[in-house]
Amino acid sequence: MAVLKIRTNPDPVLRKKARKVNSIDVSVNRLIDNMIETMQESSGIGLAANQVGAPLRIVVIQESDDEVLVLINPEIVETVGERTVIEGCLSVPGYQAEICRAETVRVRAKGRHGRLIRRKASDLLAQAIQHEVDHLNGVLFIDYLADKSQLFKTGSRPD
To answer: What domains sit in the chain, N to C, each tagged with a CATH number?
Structure first.
């Protein structure tokens, strides 16, 4: 496994819609392993493949200390409610902002072995799924801000 370079804004790969994965082969599984190692080494909660320069619809999310959720070709099929959250991103290092996310989501995807996954998520997991699926669609959390003055440095809170 290898730690990959995380692409940061304004890298153009972050703004392109990722391609559907048609076949889960050895190279896809190697990429997933490398994404997990990169996410964990970077102390991230989630990582989308395009954040490491691979424009494929793959997401990894750290669910617990020893569990990683792998979503291939994820689709958010339902959102419920709304809540304000503080969000940051490995591709926008050092900054956070308050944005609005759904309270609960339902996602459909394939797992790393090709099995269909249907999952209902709330709280931080729902936020992470929305954040990472946004990446796959070329959207960054900063796109939800009216202007850049709403960003604040990581570790500080807005007034």
So the answer is: 12-153 (3.90.45.10)
pTM of the model: 0.95
What separation in angstroms does the CA of 148 have from each of 96, 100, 141, 142, 157? Answer: 11, 16, 11, 8, 15
**Over the Cα atoms of the chain, what is R_g?**
15
Could you report the per-residue pLDDT of 60-73, keeping only the tens digit for each? 999 999 999 999 99
Told to judge if 37 belongs to the known catalytic residues of this protein, a careful annotator would answer: no
Integer Cα distance of 127 and 38 in angstroms: 20
**CA dihedral of residues 23, 33, 54, 137 (deg, nearest 10):** 80
Query: Which residue among 63, 75, 78, 132 is the active-site one?
Result: 132
Which one-letter amino acid corresponds to residue 13? V
